[in-house]
């Protein structure tokens, strides 16, 4: 592939080059990611040149801004890094943004905040907006506004023949539908247009208690989420960090005034005094501080499920034993706009809660224990069997996310737009 350097203007790294191993590294260091080369594209024209090269060479391209969601399904492919596609334009009057494929969620939030607007950020400020949207995207504000993908109005892409195109619901309804949450397996997205949402007020933060109070915290959590308006999002976290005692946390955001939020959250104030209470009026650019997720790569093993109910039996299963060797077991309240119609591959999320379990596979024995604890919890709960694409782990496939009819449509769209399988996502639509 030495001729690859002549085909593109961005940096090219090949096996044996200094920095190659670091450049191909995924965000999850527990995932091995074999690639034939790494290309850091200079711009969208450079992406087009790379696709034309790959097509003529019979090679696939796997696109990742920074490696989130990597599954290791990159053997024989060129890894395309899009972090240099970092253009960001905000149209305050039109409540729109044009976001390059390399733009992180936190940067969009920082640009939108001065205008009283927000995108649909998740818990981490370092994931790319484009990557989240291509996977559907669960946001703090999804109960008010649905999937992140539901807010996308247009995609700028390079198709499998190396042509730059603008894709909307009018220009190509099938491709537009597939890109809004189908995983990005059909074209390389170089930027997207999305609607911004009003956020004149935001209240949020984390409350933390010793784990001995988990039953009462869970009761309050169920009481709050049973009557929560769409503007209120509440997550519950069972936590056990190395060297610390087990804890339970409640994370909250409210798109409204502080006094209104405090009234909605009153059941929490009747609990035992917390170890800490970080709730306050905040800017939409500060959301990443609520859960304080790592902003550097690390090894992890996750499993997600969608809960069909959070009844007494589910609570008993969740609280019966310590979560160790897991670090966290998180329950996210869904409903609201999530369970309303969505023209996306996943469609509406009809399950009321999402469960996300995470541990660190420090060694093979610990990895097996983490996986076993996750399986035991999942087996003890009522789950639907489906899960959001962005919460899949590397061993899972698109069949775990999409209904058969949606997967058939995705594969049909893939066959029409990329019959030679030049574009490869973290979760390919074909086996």
TrEMBL record:
Its cofactor is FAD. InterPro entries: FAD-bd_PCMH, FAD-bd_PCMH-like_sf, FAD-bd_PCMH_sub1, FAD-bd_PCMH_sub2, FAD-linked_Oxidoreductase, Oxid_FAD_bind_N. Keywords: FAD, Flavoprotein, Oxidoreductase. The keyword Oxidoreductase applies. Residues 30-199 form the FAD-binding PCMH-type domain. One of its GO terms (molecular function) is oxidoreductase activity. It holds the Pfam family FAD_binding_4. PANTHER family: BINDING OXIDOREDUCTASE, PUTATIVE (AFU_ORTHOLOGUE AFUA_1G17690)-RELATED (PTHR42973), FAD-BINDING PCMH-TYPE DOMAIN-CONTAINING PROTEIN (PTHR42973:SF39). Belongs to the oxygen-dependent FAD-linked oxidoreductase family. This is FAD/FMN-containing dehydrogenase. It comes from Actinomadura mexicana. The lineage of its organism: Bacteria, Bacillati, Actinomycetota, Actinomycetes, Streptosporangiales.
């Amino acid at each position: 592939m030495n001729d690859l350097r002549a085909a593109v203007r961005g940096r090219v790294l090949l096996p044996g080059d200094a920095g190659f191993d670091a450049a191909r590294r995924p965000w999850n260091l527990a995932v091995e990611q074999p690639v034939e080369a790494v290309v850091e594209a200079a711009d969208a024209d450079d992406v087009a040149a790379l696709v034309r090269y790959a097509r003529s060479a019979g090679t696939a391209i796997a696109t990742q801004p920074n490696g989130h969601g990597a599954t290791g399904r990159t053997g024989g492919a060129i890894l395309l890094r899009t972090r240099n596609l970092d253009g960001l334009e905000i149209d305050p009057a039109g409540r729109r943004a044009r976001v390059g494929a390399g733009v992180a969620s936190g940067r969009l939030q920082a640009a939108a905040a001065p205008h009283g607007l927000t995108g649909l950020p998740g818990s981490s400020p370092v994931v790319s907006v484009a990557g989240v949207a291509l996977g559907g995207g669960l946001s703090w504000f999804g109960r008010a506004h649905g999937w992140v993908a539901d807010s996308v109005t247009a995609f700028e892409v390079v198709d499998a023949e190396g042509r730059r195109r603008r894709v909307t619901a009018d220009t190509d309804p099938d491709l537009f539908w597939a890109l809004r949450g189908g995983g990005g397996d059909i074209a390389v997205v170089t930027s997207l247009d999305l609607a911004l949402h009003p956020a004149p007020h935001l209240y949020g933060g984390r409350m933390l208690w010793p784990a001995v109070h988990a039953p009462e915290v869970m009761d309050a959590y169920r009481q709050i989420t049973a009557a929560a308006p769409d503007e209120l999002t509440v997550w519950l976290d069972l936590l056990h960090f190395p060297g610390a005692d087990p804890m339970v946390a409640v994370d909250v955001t409210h798109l409204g005034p502080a006094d209104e939020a405090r009234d909605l959250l009153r059941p929490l104030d009747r609990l035992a005094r917390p170890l800490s209470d970080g709730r306050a009026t905040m800017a939409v650019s500060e959301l990443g501080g609520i859960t304080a997720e790592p902003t550097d790569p690390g090894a992890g093993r996750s499993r997600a499920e969608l809960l069909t109910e959070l009844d007494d039996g589910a609570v008993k299963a969740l609280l019966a034993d310590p979560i160790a060797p897991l670090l966290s077991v998180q329950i996210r309240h869904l409903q609201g706009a999530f369970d309303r119609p969505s023209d996306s591959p996943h469609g509406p999320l009809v399950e009321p809660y999402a469960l996300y379990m995470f541990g660190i596979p420090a060694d093979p024995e610990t990895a097996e224990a983490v996986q076993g604890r996750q399986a035991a919890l999942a087996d003890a709960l009522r789950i639907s069997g489906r899960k959001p694409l962005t919460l899949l782990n590397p061993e899972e496939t698109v069949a775990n996310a999409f209904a058969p009819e949606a997967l058939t449509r995705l594969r049909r769209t893939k066959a029409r737009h990329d019959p030679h399988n030049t574009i490869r996502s973290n979760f390919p639509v074909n086996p």
